[in-house]
């Protein structure tokens, strides 16, 4: 059944009945309880990714690797990151595969690619939320492409934590990068501090953003943040 | 969300206001309009000054719409019909929708003032707009709601408000961060199920042990073949954060089909019938049982001779069944003979149903009936269900951490990668 | 032995310190909130009001917030009153009452009335009932909402007593409140109010019965239907009693319950209740009504046919067709056939294809031009391109052309029917544009061809 499905995958393209791939769908479910099935399925998927199959078929394979892929799939997926047609769903898989290998592949792409694909990789680093990406993202805050700088700021906001906070504060002070995105990300970091009851640190951030020189919306956000700190402190 | 081509401008240009965003923006807008009139006296129309049943221009909520297809038209009509709203702009990636919408809006106000946009970023950058309604396909909702909040706009977002579990907390966070009013868009939760809500909240049913929701089907993967593009549509923008796919009229049709003839059927753009009607039915069930503020802790997958079905277990002991064989939609199992203390039923505020509720809350800054957090809690049921059915197993859900407990594969399905350059 | 007192002492000291810290932190938050309550920007005020609703618990802080009321402008004051209501601490009640009694601003009074629904006591009932007759519509509504929400076991009895003596305008509103509170213990009083001389009270009572009436009291509700003036009030009364019937899940039992209730009414008046039977529907009642509609008494037959025409689904279609085909009376044939076409076309649980099949069958049964036109007209309820294809040939027949034009335009109105078949609809709309004598239809046809919508006039 599985072999039959992978045979069908060779000619799978837009318009092909998806039922022809049912064997793969069944193996995806069976993989949960059976490591051997999972390993076999992953090997089949990795092999397919390296073969001459359609874009639609590669997309399909990436979706499946997103579900069950391991570091073993990272090299095959990484090769797709610079290819515009495949980059997105390869990232989709790499965002989900645990371990430093996938993270490193995304970091390399964030550093080496350009334009939209670079932004995609930066976004994936943010989605993974791993603080070890902070240094990579920090180096992109002053990228010549403002869209890249904004993306890096947003990803730092998603990662949060003290390291990302410090990077964002420093960038705001030095006027590096896109101010709106930096502030939004810093506010996001402050929220994560409030959630983890680090209200003293969060308060410092909010107070730095509550001055009259700030746009109204930022002052409003800072005021709301200060109230949240107050409520959190009073409740604890 | 990233914006490669258009810089956000609203925060930089909005001056410090004395009466919320609206007054400041409106005054600035009028001032600018006056200043650029080349010495021609600014004519204040009777419409601008208002009348007994129409507030003065400065007191109206300035609105715009994004995604004006089937549902968007209905929402737009509701907002256009309100005297306390001034509808000034719309955005859609279909040219025909832009033209039709402009004609309708201009016809309403007997002028030619409505501006149309293909790119929502240009619309959101306008400082004079207080609020937007969003009725795009679901894969755009999170990006648009979050970005609108970042621009200080209040948002009415059609249901289902989220496409993934991860999007919900980020949308809530953006709304709370900037103090925005964000209402979800299911008019049915209160409108259709009141006959069940009233006795339940009055305590007449006793402790509700379970309620059943019949809804479906699951979303399907779309691999429709490419068709000749006969309509004028910005295909790249229609796809947005969703994976690339070739143009096909069924892929992007806004019809209400959930069986393969519209985007509502397909995994990349929707949670299928589970979210499309689930946003209503699960919303009704959680309202009836007063668990709108909660998320379940477990979803039990049942595979029986009668078919597959689910039990959602709540921390308060309630079970919401999904498609339980032999059970009707919203069939309730209460505790006969038990009368609980009655509780007043939450209702819409203002006048004009869910739209009026939203506008009232935009004015007063109160919490709308389908506040984004409640909407997200509703959508969570549909997403958890879709994942459990796909994985064919029971799952434990940690609502505080927004993670599945001890199921790494399920956790991979909490979110999806977004197509570049879009991110949340 | 010594260790315990020392430990206790330490514990007490620790607790005291903790309470002090907690109190200080709470005080800080209250200070923050108070500073923002008077902020000139409503969104900053709203940030503080959110915290008034949920944080810094306790009567002391509630009183601190309430003490800010006199310092605020009307709009900010109203918002704070609302937030204090949502906070739910009755410590704010005196301050709210002070605003209700002393404020010249409608916005403030309205907020105060609404807040009493959350933090009021039974002693506020006279105030709230009085406000139901306020000159301000907003205050009336707020008072109604507050009366609905106020939680105290005594409220319902007091309101039910007031209902008997209040002026009609207030009586109606009190009935609405009792219904919203699901005061099922007061159903007898509400049923009595359904016989009131004042139409607004009767209508409020029937609406209330529709909401909370019990099926075992059906018989007592029927006089209310008969008392209702023919037209809108009667229709409303029928709808509400039908609602009560529909609370009986089993269709057969539902029919039996209504028939049993009808048996309590004089025969002469029973026929007047036939439309109600139609609204309830169901197989059991079809038999009941069909006996009348096909019986020997010609005057009663008309009531029966009328009842069948009001059925909520197409189930009486065959019965109506049988009556239409059997009768030798032209007027009865006309009434029965029109009713038959009406129920065939009703948008019930059948799909559009099933509906269209019924219309095709109806066309075969139609004998006259008038009957065929009725079928063409009603085919508009089958939202399917096949319905347009069915009607289209009638464009070529002068006696049916205008009806066909109208139905085609109505079908084209539905984007989900039109868009997937655009070329075909464009062609048939071109025919309509040429043939129709109705300017509005022509305009609509042109709009649909251009992909535009048309707003139906209300």
Structure in a nutshell:
Chain A is mainly α and 236 residues long. Chain A is 72% helix and 0% strand. Chain C is mostly helical.
Account of the protein in words:
The complex is a heterotrimer of chains A (236), B (424) and C (458). Chain A has 236 residues and is mainly alpha-helical. Chain A has two domains: 1-98; 115-236, Leucine-rich Repeat Variant. Chain A is built from 14 helices and no strands. In chain A, α6 runs antiparallel to α7. Chain A is elongated, with a radius of gyration of 22 Å. Chain B has 16 helices and 13 strands. Chain B has 424 residues and is α/β, with parallel strands linked by helices. Chain B starts with 9 loop residues before the first helix and ends in a 13-residue tail after the last helix. Chain B folds into two domains: 10-187, 3-Layer(aba) Sandwich (Rossmann fold), CATH 3.40.50.720; 189-218 and 274-411, Dihydrodipicolinate Reductase, domain 2 (2-Layer Sandwich). In chain B, the strands form two sheets. In chain B, strands 11-7-10-9-8-12-13 form a seven-stranded mixed sheet. In chain B, strands 3-2-1-4-5-6 form a six-stranded parallel sheet, sandwiched between helices. Chain C has 458 residues and is mainly α. Among the domains of chain C are: 24-151, Alpha Horseshoe (Leucine-rich Repeat Variant); 153-247, Alpha Horseshoe (Leucine-rich Repeat Variant). Helices cover 72% and strands 0% of the residues of chain C. Chain C has helices spanning 3-37, 42-54, 59-66, 74-87, 93-102, 106-119, 125-131, 137-149, 155-165, 168-180, 187-193, 199-212, 218-227, 232-245, 251-262, 267-270, 274-280, 283-293, 298-309, 317-326, 330-345, 352-365, 369-378, 385-391, 398-412, 415-418, 422-435, 439-449. In chain C, α13 runs antiparallel to α14, α15 packs across α18 (283-293) and α25 crosses α28 (439-449). The radius of gyration of chain C is 32 Å and the shape is flat. The model of chain C has no long low-confidence stretch (mean pLDDT 92). Chains A and B meet through α4, α6, α8, α10 and α12 of A and α1 and α8 of B.
């Amino acid at each position: 059944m599985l072999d039959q499905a992978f045979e069908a995958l060779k000619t799978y393209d837009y318009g092909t009945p998806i039922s022809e791939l049912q064997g793969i769908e069944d193996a995806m479910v069976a993989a949960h309880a059976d490591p051997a099935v999972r390993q076999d399925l992953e090997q089949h998927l990795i092999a397919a990714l390296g073969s001459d199959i359609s874009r639609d078929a590669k997309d399909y394979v990436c979706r499946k690797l997103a579900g069950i892929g391991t570091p073993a799939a990272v090299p095959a997926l990484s090769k797709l990151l610079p290819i515009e047609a495949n980059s997105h769903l390869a990232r989709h898989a790499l965002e989900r595969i645990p371990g430093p290998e996938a993270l490193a592949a995304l970091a390399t792409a964030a550093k080496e690619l350009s334009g939209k694909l670079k932004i995609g990789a930066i976004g994936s680093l943010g989605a993974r939320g791993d603080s070890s990406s902070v240094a990579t993202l920090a180096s992109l805050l002053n990228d010549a492409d403002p869209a890249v700088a904004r993306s890096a700021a947003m990803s730092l906001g998603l990662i949060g934590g003290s390291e990302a906070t410090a990077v964002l504060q420093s960038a705001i002070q030095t006027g590096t990068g896109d101010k709106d995105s930096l502030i939004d990300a810093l506010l996001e970091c402050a929220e994560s501090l409030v959630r983890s009851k680090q209200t003293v640190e969060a308060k410092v951030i909010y107070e730095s953003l509550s001055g009259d020189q700030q746009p109204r919306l930022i002052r409003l956000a800072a005021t709301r943040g200060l109230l949240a700190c107050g409520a959190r402190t009073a409740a604890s | 969300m990233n914006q490669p081509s258009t810089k956000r401008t609203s925060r930089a240009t909005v001056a410090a206001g004395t009466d919320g965003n609206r007054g400041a923006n409106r005054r600035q807008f009028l001032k600018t309009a006056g200043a650029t009139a080349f010495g021609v006296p600014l004519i204040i129309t009777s419409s601008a000054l208002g009348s007994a049943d129409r507030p003065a221009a400065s007191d109206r909520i300035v609105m715009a719409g994004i995604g004006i297809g089937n549902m968007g038209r209905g929402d737009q009509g509701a907002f256009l019909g309100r005297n306390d709203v001034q509808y000034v702009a719309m955005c859609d990636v279909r040219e025909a929708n832009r033209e039709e919408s402009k004609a309708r809006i201009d016809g309403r106000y007997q002028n030619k003032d409505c501006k149309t946009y293909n790119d929502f970023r240009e619309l959101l950058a306008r400082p004079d707009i207080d609020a937007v309604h969003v009725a795009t396909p679901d894969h755009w909702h999170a990006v648009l709601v979050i970005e609108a909040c970042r621009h200080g706009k209040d948002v009415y977002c059609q249901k289902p408000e989220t496409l993934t579990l991860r999007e919900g907390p980020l949308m809530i966070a953006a709304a709370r961060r900037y103090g925005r009013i964000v209402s979800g868009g299911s008019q049915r939760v209160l409108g259709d199920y009141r006959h069940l809500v009233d006795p339940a909240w009055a305590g007449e049913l006793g402790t509700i042990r379970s309620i059943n929701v019949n809804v479906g089907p699951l979303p399907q993967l779309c691999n429709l073949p490419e068709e000749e593009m006969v309509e004028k549509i910005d295909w790249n923008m229609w796809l947005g954060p969703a994976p690339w796919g070739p143009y096909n009229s069924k892929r992007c049709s806004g019809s209400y089909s959930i069986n393969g003839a519209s985007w509502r059927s397909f995994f990349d753009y929707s949670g299928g019938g589970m979210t499309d009607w689930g946003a209503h039915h699960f919303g009704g069930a959680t309202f009836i049982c007063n668990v709108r503020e909660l998320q379940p802790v477990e979803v039990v997958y049942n595979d029986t001779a009668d078919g597959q079905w689910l039990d959602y277990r709540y921390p308060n002991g309630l079970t919401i069944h999904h498609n339980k064989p032999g059970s009707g939609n919203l069939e309730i199992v209460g505790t006969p003979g038990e009368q609980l203390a009655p509780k007043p039923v939450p209702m819409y505020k203002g006048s004009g149903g869910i739209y009026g509720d939203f506008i009232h809350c935009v004015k007063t800054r109160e919490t709308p009936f389908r506040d984004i957090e409640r909407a997200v809690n509703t959508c969570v049921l549909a997403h958890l269900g879709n994942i459990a059915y796909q994985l064919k197993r029971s799952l434990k859900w940690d609502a505080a951490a927004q993670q599945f407990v001890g199921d790494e594969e399920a956790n991979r399905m909490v979110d999806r990668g977004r197509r570049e350059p879009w991110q949340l | 032995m010594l260790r315990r007192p020392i430990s206790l002492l330490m514990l007490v000291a620790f607790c005291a310190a903790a309470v002090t810290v907690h109190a200080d932190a709470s005080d800080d938050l209250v200070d923050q909130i108070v500073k923002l309550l008077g902020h000139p920007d409503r969104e900053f005020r709203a940030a503080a009001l959110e915290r008034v609703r949920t944080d810094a618990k306790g009567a002391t802080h509630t009183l601190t917030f309430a003490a800010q009321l006199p310092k605020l402008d009307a709009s900010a004051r109203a918002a704070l009153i609302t937030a204090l209501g949502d906070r739910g601490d009755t410590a704010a009640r005196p301050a709210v009452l002070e605003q209700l009694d002393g404020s010249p601003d409608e916005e403030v009074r309205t907020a105060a009335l609404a807040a009493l629904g959350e933090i009021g006591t039974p002693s506020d009932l006279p105030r709230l009932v009085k406000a139901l007759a306020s000159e301000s519509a907003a205050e009336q509504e707020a008072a109604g909402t507050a009366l609905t929400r106020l939680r105290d076991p005594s409220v319902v009895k007091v309101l039910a007593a007031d209902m008997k003596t209040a002026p009609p305008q207030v009586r109606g509103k009190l009935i609405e409140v009792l219904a919203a509170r699901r005061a099922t213990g007061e159903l007898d009083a509400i049923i009595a109010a359904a016989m009131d001389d004042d139409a607004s009270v009767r209508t409020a009572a029937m609406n209330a019965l529709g909401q909370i009436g019990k099926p075992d009291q059906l018989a007592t509700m029927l006089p209310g239907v008969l008392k209702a003036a023919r037209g809108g009030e009667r229709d409303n009364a029928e709808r509400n009693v039908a609602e009560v019937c529909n609370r009986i899940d089993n269709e057969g039992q539902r029919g039996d319950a209504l028939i049993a209730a009808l048996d309590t009414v004089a025969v002469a008046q029973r026929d007047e209740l036939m439309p109600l039977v139609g609204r309830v529907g169901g197989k059991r009642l079809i038999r009941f009504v069909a006996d009348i509609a096909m019986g020997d008494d010609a005057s009663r037959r008309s009531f029966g046919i009328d009842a069948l025409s009001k059925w909520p689904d197409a189930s009486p279609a065959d019965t109506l067709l049988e009556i239409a085909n059997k009768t030798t009376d032209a007027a009865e044939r006309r009434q029965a056939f029109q009713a038959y076409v009406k129920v065939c076309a009703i948008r019930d649980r059948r799909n559009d294809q099933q509906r269209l099949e019924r219309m095709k069958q109806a066309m075969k049964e139609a004998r006259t031009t008038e009957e065929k036109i009725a079928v063409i007209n009603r085919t508009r309820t089958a939202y399917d391109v096949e319905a347009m294809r069915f009607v289209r040939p009638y464009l070529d027949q002068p006696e049916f052309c205008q009806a066909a034009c109208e139905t085609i335009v109505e079908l084209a109105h539905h984007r989900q029917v039109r868009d997937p078949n655009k070329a075909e609809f464009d062609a048939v709309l071109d025919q309509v544009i040429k043939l129709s004598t109705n300017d509005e239809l022509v305009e609509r046809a042109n709009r649909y061809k251009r992909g535009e919508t048309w707003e139906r006039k209300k």
